[in-house]
UniProtKB/TrEMBL annotation:
Protein name per its UniProtKB record: Cell shape-determining protein MreC
Gene3D superfamilies hit by this protein: Rod shape-determining protein MreC, domain 1, Rod shape-determining protein MreC, domain 2
One Gene Ontology cellular component annotation held by this UniProt entry: plasma membrane
GO biological process: regulation of cell shape
Organism this protein belongs to: Paenibacillus apis
UniProt-listed InterPro entries: Cell/Rod_1 (IPR042177), Cell/Rod_MreC_2 (IPR042175), MreC (IPR007221), MreC_beta-barrel_core (IPR055342)
């Protein structure tokens, strides 16, 4: 008994003994069958939960703040990328539309030249319009082909719609075209066009040598017999005189009047060519001109 008191008088051993007894008691209590938590466990869990709530809420707010900043940066970056993509799309769309229009126009030019080859033995050399002189007295255009490609003065220039003019000056790389809208019977340097109505059994001949600026029409004069001629008849060059090749489209008849002295008749002809917004034109080469 004395030894036991001496042993208990050692504080360290006493504390260890009490801790061991409590540990065994807790182990036995927790390992045993139970349906609910004990009050110490509840106390500990509530304490831990309360501490977690205190620290978690501000920590979550701070983390959410930095996450929102990161999201804003990502959103700004995505907006910049979308703006660049939209700019590229707009540019590519405009380029695609331009290419599509050019392909359609060139296909139309090709169909026209193929159709003309079936009618006449002419060579149609395509040329691009590089400049336009809008002087109402002397309207001219400049093409990007010249003497190097065999172009000569006096050759007819035609669009897909109709006759445009005649080559007036030629250099090595360009050609100047005098438009039909400058035709004036009072001008000694203006060449008239011998014309006829296409597809008529009884041929009708006349001369176009005047363009009326006010009405935008040609005056077909020197018609001896107007009976075969009617409104909407297609007027083409007859080839007489050798200035313009045969079959060049001039326009359609609007009406027919008695001439100035009552001996001949005059027809008003609406031009087939628009004389505006040209991209490509054709220089007409006759077989005789190619052999020279």
């Amino acid at each position: 008994m004395l030894k036991l008191f001496k042993l208990l008088s050692n504080k360290r051993l006493f504390i260890m003994l009490i801790g061991l007894i409590l540990f065994i008691a807790v182990m036995g209590f927790t390992l045993g069958p139970r349906t609910s938590l004990s009050w110490p466990e509840k106390f500990v869990k509530d304490t831990v939960g309360f501490v977690q709530y205190i620290f978690y809420k501000p920590a979550g707010a701070i983390a959410g703040f930095f996450e929102d900043i990161s999201n804003l940066r990502n959103l700004q970056k995505e907006n910049e990328e979308l703006k660049i993509a939209l700019a590229h799309y707009t540019r590519d769309k405009a380029r695609f539309n331009w290419i599509e229009q050019e392909n359609a126009r060139l296909q139309k030019d090709l169909d026209f030249t193929n159709a003309q080859k079936e009618q006449y033995n002419y060579t149609w050399k395509i040329a691009h319009v590089i400049s336009v002189n809008d002087d109402p007295v002397n309207r001219t255009i400049v093409l990007n082909i010249g003497g190097r490609e065999g172009v000569k003065e006096g050759q007819a220039v035609h669009s897909v719609e109709g006759l445009v003019g005649v080559v007036s000056h030629v250099s090595n790389f360009t050609s100047t075209v005098k438009l039909l809208t400058t035709m004036d019977a009072r001008d000694p340097n203006s060449n008239g066009i011998a014309v006829t109505a296409q597809g008529k059994e009884n041929e009708v001949f006349g001369v176009i040598e005047t363009y009326d600026l006010s009405s935008g029409t040609f005056q077909m004069s020197r018609i001896e017999d107007p009976k075969p001629l009617a409104k909407d008849d297609l007027i083409v060059s007859s080839g007489i005189g050798g200035v313009f090749p045969r079959g060049m489209i001039i326009g359609k008849v609007l009406d027919i009047q008695v001439g100035e002295y009552g001996l001949t008749y005059t027809a008003t002809v609406k031009p087939a060519a628009s004389f505006t917004d040209w991209k490509e034109l054709f220089v007409v080469f006759e077989p005789e001109a190619e052999q020279e």
